[in-house]
Each structure stands twice: as C-alpha cells, then as structure tokens.
Amino acid sequence: MAMRVRMTWLVLGMGAIWLGACGGSTPDPGSETDIALRGLIQKNGLRGDPAFGRELPSIDEPLAQLGRKLFFSKSLGGDRDSACVTCHHPALGGGDGLPMSIGVGADDPDLLGPGRTHPDGDLPVPRNAPTTFNIALWEKGLFWDSRVENLDDGGTRTPDSDFGTPDPDAGESLSEAQARFPVTSPEEMRGFEFVLDGTNAELRTALEQRLAEDGRWDAEFEATFGSSDIGYARIAEAIAAYEDSQVFTDTPWREYVEGNHDAIEEPAKRGAILFLGTREDGGADCASCHAGDFFTDEDFHSICAPQLGRGKGDGFLGTNDHGRARENDDRNYLFSFRTSSLLNVSATGPYLHAGTYDNLVDVVRHHLDPLGAIDSFDPSTVPLAASEDFERNTQEMLDFLEVSGRGIDSLRAPIELTDQDVEDLVAFLETLTDPCVLDRQCLSPWIADPATDDVDGHLLVAIDRDQNPL
Ligand code: HEC
Ligand code: HEC
C-alpha cells in the first residue's frame, strides 16, 4: 500500500506548484501528463474520496451482521429459492454477472453468476442488476430509473406512493426504502404463488410472520434491536446497514487524485485526460454526465442503449423500456436512465440497463458513436426472449431521439478517437476499481458464513458453474 499524503496544490497558468507536507522536500510536479491531468482534476472539482465526510456503518456492527444473514436468506423469497444475494453477490462485483437476472425458478437456485439458467431458457428479469457496492453514496435515487427517490421537499417516494409523493413507510435512507421492494417482485423473489393476490403490504406481513413463526429469528432480532419483534421495517433497516457497509472506494484513481503520481500508469492518465476533457478541449466529454468523485450527476440521459430482452412492457411491441419516462410520465425522458457510477466498473459487467455489452471497450465505443455501435451489434449473440424485437425497439428509440433532439451528443456528432484512445479510456476506467472487490479474502466479511449465519436452514450458500464455492 502506498502511503497517502494529503496535499494542497494550485495550478497557476501552465504549471503546477505543490505546497506540500512531504517532510520539507520540494514536491514533484510530475510529468507533462500529470500537470495537464491535475489541471483537469481541479477544473472538475475532484477531491478523491466520494465518501468524504459521511458516516457509514461498519460490517462489524450487529445491525449489519443481521443484515448479512437476511441478505443471504432464501426465507425472504416466496418459494424460498431466491435471496437478495442471488443477484447481488460480493464476489460477482455486487451484481450477478448476467446481462439480466434470473431470480425465482432457476435450475439450480444456489448457482450464481454465468451458468445460472432458467428452465424456459430465458433471463426473466427485464433489467441488469446494478451493484450494491457504494449504494450508500447515491443522494437522489435508486434503480435505473430512480423510482426510489428523495424528494426536494423531504421524504422518499417509492413504488408504493404516487410520483412526487412521499411513502410514509420508506424509512431513513434510500437503501432502506429500496429494500422493501425486491421481495414484492414475482420474477426476483416472490414467485408466482406466495400471497399471489396480496398487496405489497400483505406480502411483507406474510414474510414477517414466516420469520416469526420459525422461532429461530427471534433471538437475532432481540440481540440487535432489544426486542424480538420482526417487522419488515427492521428487516429493511438491517439489510440497508449491510449494504451501506459495502463502501469500496479505495481506488488507484483516488490515490492519484490525493497526490500520488505513481498510483496509476501513463495510459490511464491519458485516458483520464480524455474522460475529463470537454469536446472543445479534444476530450471525450464523459465527465459531463459521469461527474464528480462518484462519477455520476445522478441525472437522466439517453445514451441510446439498445434494448434487449423482454423489456418493461413499453412501446409498440410491448418489449421496450421507456426508462425514467415510465415514472415521471414526461415524454422528454423517454429512453433515459440514471447515469451509472463508474466506481468498480471493471468488476460489475455486463453493462447498461439491459446488460447489452459484456466488456468496457464496447461500452466506450457505444458512447462515442451510438449509431455505429448499434449498426454493428448482433442481437442474436444474446440468448434472450424478444431479441427478435431488437430492430423495431431500437428504431422506436432512434425515431424519438431524432424528432426530440434529445440523447447523447455523439448520436448526431460521433466523437472520433483512435483505438489507442479507447484503450486509454478503458485503462482509466480500470483504475476506478478498489482492489478489495477483486479479492475473495478481502470481501469475506461481506459473504455469509454457513457456520454462523444460517439461522433457519435457508441460507444461500453460493456456488459457481464449476460447483466451486463463490
Ligand atoms: C432476481 C435478481 C434480483 C434479486 C433477487 C434482488 N435484486 Fe436488487 N436489483 C435487481 C435488478 C435487476 C435491479 C435493477 C432494477 C431496476 O432498476 O429497475 C436491482 C436493483 C437493486 C438496487 C438499486 C441499485 C442502484 O444502483 O440503484 C439495490 C440497492 C438492490 N437491488 C438491492 C436488493 C436487495 C436488498 C434485495 C433483496 C431484498 C435484492 N436487491 C434482490 C435484481 C435483483
Ligand atoms: C449524456 C450523458 C453521458 C455521457 C456524456 C457519458 N455517459 Fe456513460 N452512461 C450514461 C448513462 C445514462 C448510462 C446508463 C445508460 C443505460 O444503461 O441505458 C451510462 C453508462 C456507462 C457505463 C456502463 C456502466 C454500467 O455499470 O453499466 C460506462 C462504462 C460508461 N457509461 C462510461 C462512459 C464513458 C467512458 C464516457 C465518455 C466516452 C461516457 N460514459 C459518457 C451517461 C453518459
């Protein structure tokens, strides 16, 4: 581990002067690349640590420990065959490694990641599972369309309340509010029999009763909350504490921003210059949306991501996904999605809301020239229902973006970069990954231990497609 030294630096005209605390020696301004990059870092207002100043739970706290047990428990799935971890395993980058998820009814419920299959041969969940890593850092909203969102006037709106209206049961944080919903989705966790016609509230009550009747959860709740009441609000609070403890922000890039020239290599530095630079500066303008230390403006944009899979029931064929417009009913937001954070992105593929691309080179190329990328995309390579609808759905999106003039600028004016530039951008993206998320040992505090965490015999002990423990 390189030592982290906090320094103040100023850029004056063409050069950089370091005013530092390096034991009296004159700080090294770095190479020309460093000088240019540090200028852009300052211009973009980057400080390094996206979690700066926040108080976040530790995985060692009792609440987060209970949350881990619940997150890995199939008892929250209607048919006891799906848990939160099914689609958000730490060893799979906090996601599931699939373009779109398979929740209930899998051929082997405990087999996670590539190789998880469903008897009807399809991926039944209509969107890609985002990572739960760093979930605590989102300030505005969760989900690809932020349908769990903090309102300007206070309170949190969820799918249980009308658009713009707070949900009185949302709890204290976005993570808590979000944790009330996966259990209600038939494809993700609920299944197609459990409290079939019940409301979300009735479903949650049934789950509370299930845990209470089992008896073995009482002591867990008693030890954590001081009483054995098992309410869904407590379940959500514990799960949220577990998720919020998944703070993985110790990246080589952060170390670079905080002052260590050697934390990243030359190609990544060139990539960072492209990423942070505007088009006028010869850059790729990525930071206009992937802004700040968390690499997102938390706003909605259409980058013309091709729709794959069964979609959300939108559009002419009913297999498209209208994104944010589904929520705010505003045509201006058709096909737009929340800007992804790029932290740990090299570990969180496949990418985009429909899991369209499985590698970063393709994602970057798509951003630079969406039409070119769509033209050369072959949907038959992705084994999904409704992939025959790809062309029609994509055309529907392009027609809208053309008429409305919306969508990423590169749709109308592609950004022309060399292959080397694209490689450099990817090299930069790779510096946004905290080494801990690539290290099973480092992740082990977040992975349930069957010896201590299997409260009722329904802990999901995950295996990969080679039957090895995940
Ligand atoms: C079958 C797979 C599946 C299961 C099981 C599942 N999720 Fe998810 N999760 C997803 C998908 C897919 C999305 C994105 C859905 C969307 O945006 O419309 C998502 C989104 C999320 C998000 C929002 C992430 C972000 O960046 O906004 C969080 C947090 C989350 N899930 C936590 C949970 C928790 C907690 C549970 C258990 C109570 C759970 N998930 C169970 C697939 C799953
Ligand atoms: C106009 C805003 C905008 C610009 C500019 C932009 N992005 Fe994105 N980016 C997004 C949005 C929105 C998504 C998610 C879109 C979706 O899934 O439909 C995304 C997704 C991504 C993803 C995939 C993340 C994931 O987890 O799936 C990567 C990687 C990425 N962008 C990198 C870049 C790079 C590199 C650039 C510059 C070449 C760039 N972006 C420019 C808005 C933007």
TrEMBL record:
Keyword tags: Heme, Iron, Metal-binding, Oxidoreductase, Signal
Superkingdom assignment: Bacteria
GO molecular function: cytochrome-c peroxidase activity; electron transfer activity; heme binding; metal ion binding
Residue stretches making up the Cytochrome c domain: 266-433
Annotated Gene Ontology cellular component terms: cell envelope
Gene3D superfamilies found in the cross-reference section: Cytochrome c-like domain
Record region (Disordered): 150-173
InterPro entries per the UniProt record, alphabetical: Cyt_c-like_dom, Cyt_c-like_dom_sf, Cytochrome_c_Peroxidase/MauG, Di-haem_cyt_c_peroxidsae
Cell location: Cell envelope
Pfam families (UniProt xref): CCP_MauG (PF03150)
Official protein name in the record: Methylamine utilization protein MauG
Gene name for this UniProt entry: mauG
